[in-house]
Amino acid sequence: MALAFRNTLRAARSLMVRGYAEAAPAIKEGEMALTLAAGNKVFYNKVAVKQIDVPSFSGAFGILPKHVPTLAVLKPGVVTVYESDGKQAKIFVSSGTITVNEDSSVQVLAEEAHPVESLDRSAAQEALSKAQSEYNSAGNEKAKAEAAIAVEVAEEIVKAAS
């Protein structure tokens, strides 16, 4: 029995192949690697970009190559990505974190994110009305706080969709 187990283990080891991690993309001077992901989608995965503008609880700010290392909390709003080819992408984020590393790589990790062009203004307006109603009728502090967050997110979606 032990011999059969060892033979099976040897056979399994021969199937395991170790390799190197995927090489990072070549980043030119004046660019930085961006990873922007949410639970629903990965928008950028180590893609070279020129600038990123983010909304944070300490204020909105722009990130350029060689930015000082930073860790911040995203607030609901629009992240604007200035791609290397000159295009701009606007992505609405509900919350999350921003990390700027010493090597100029940036990670934006959002709870939820959607391209601005996919937002429905009338649905956002309806969600805002519902959230405001829930806030006004909240029976306790917890319900009021949860409704206040929903109001803030809905207000930012309405702004972004306009």
TrEMBL record:
| Sample GO molecular function, one term | proton-transporting ATP synthase activity, rotational mechanism
Localization terms from the record: Mitochondrion inner membrane
InterPro entries, per database record: ATP_F1_dsu/esu_C_sf, ATP_synth_F1_dsu/esu, ATP_synth_F1_dsu/esu_N, ATPD_C_metazoa, ATPsynth_dsu/esu_N
Keywords from the UniProt entry: ATP synthesis, CF(1), Hydrogen ion transport, Ion transport, Membrane, Mitochondrion, Mitochondrion inner membrane, Transit peptide, Transport
UniProt GO cellular component terms: mitochondrial inner membrane; proton-transporting ATP synthase complex
A Pfam entry, by short name:
ATP-synt_DE_N
Q: Which CDD domains match?
A: F1-ATPase_delta (cd12152)
Q: What is its main location?
A: mitochondrion
Asked if the Swiss-Prot or TrEMBL record annotates the protein with the keyword Signal, the reply is no
Q: Does the keyword Transit peptide apply?
A: yes
Superkingdom, natural source: Eukaryota
Similarity remark: Belongs to the ATPase epsilon chain family.
List the protein's name. F-ATPase delta subunit
What lineage is on file? Eukaryota, Metazoa, Ecdysozoa, Arthropoda, Hexapoda
